[in-house]
Design brief:
This protein is an alpha/beta fold. It has helices spanning about 15-30, 55-75, 95-105, 130-145, 185-195, 205-215, and strands at about 5-10, 35-40, 80-85, 110-115, 165-170, 175-180, 225-230. It has one domain (about 5-230): 3-Layer(aba) Sandwich (Rossmann fold). The longest helix is centred in the N-terminal third of the chain and has 19 residues, at about 55-75. Bound molecules: zinc ion.
Length: about 240
């Protein structure tokens, strides 16, 4: 079995557990090496559990800890936080360069990120400005920047260029790939429940997640699935 490295990019702690917790848990079981890369530490979120607005540094600490617990349950090897400002992520050249360095350091064959294509703006959650900026910045970092030896980031770490092989875009309005998560949906639920500060009504999560995953599973004749738009990256 090929030993693939998978880099999973999201804007906020909990984005990735929602988008692909079942897939990453299934792939970790297969022996893939999974990294979660969170652009922000979620310091702009309220503490919904205690109904508190906490100082940003305190909130960031809570949410990073929640994300590490969740990732650990899923079998993720490491969680990286890039320190972008929650609520103010912009797809700048500086961010592209930061992401190019991360891609060249981790050298993933597979990337999972948010879909920058076919934005329908029919969901405030999906089309959060940080999600849109993250989606665009990751897309632009993968190709051509990270794989092009002539592309030299500012604050260059001197790492060799790296071409990602394939990308799975989550939250897509036109998915073309469904991954069976029947064996790992319970881990996904546990991971989601780890984000305690973000869940005023944790009892409602399981029903919603099983319903969504059930609809996607029906597309491939499995009980539960997650949906992606998969693309090959030009080599
Ligand atoms: Zn988010």
């Amino acid at each position: 079995m090929a030993h693939d490295v998978v880099a999973v990019f999201g804007a906020h702690p909990d984005d990735l557990d929602w988008a692909c917790g079942g897939t990453t848990a299934a792939w970790a079981r297969e022996g893939k090496e999974i990294y979660f890369v969170l652009l922000t530490s979620g310091e702009g979120g309220e503490d919904h559990l205690r109904r508190l607005v906490l100082p940003p540094a305190e909130m960031a600490e809570i949410r990073e800890a929640e994300q590490r617990i969740a990732a650990n349950l899923l079998g993720v090897k490491e969680v990286l936080f890039l320190g972008q400002p929650d609520g103010r992520v912009e797809a700048t050249l500086a961010l592209r360069d930061q992401l190019v360095n991360v891609i060249r350091r981790l050298r993933p064959q597979i990337v999972i990120s948010m879909d920058p294509g076919a934005w329908t703006f029919d969901s405030f959650y999906l089309y959060h400005p940080d999600h849109r900026a993250t989606a665009t910045a990751v897309f632009d970092a993968i190709y051509p920047a990270a794989g092009n030896p002539c592309y030299v980031p500012q604050a260059d770490e001197g790492l060799p260029a790296h071409k990602v092989r394939e990308v799975y875009w989550s939250g897509s309005s036109r998915p073309n790939t469904y991954i069976d998560i029947t064996a790992t949906i319970d881990l996904k639920l546990q991971a989601l429940l780890s984000h305690r500060s973000q869940l005023p009504n944790p009892d409602e999560i399981a029903t919603y997640v099983r319903q969504m995953a059930g609809q996607r599973g029906a597309k491939i004749g499995s009980r539960y699935a997650e949906a992606f738009r998969r693309m090959d990256v030009p080599q």
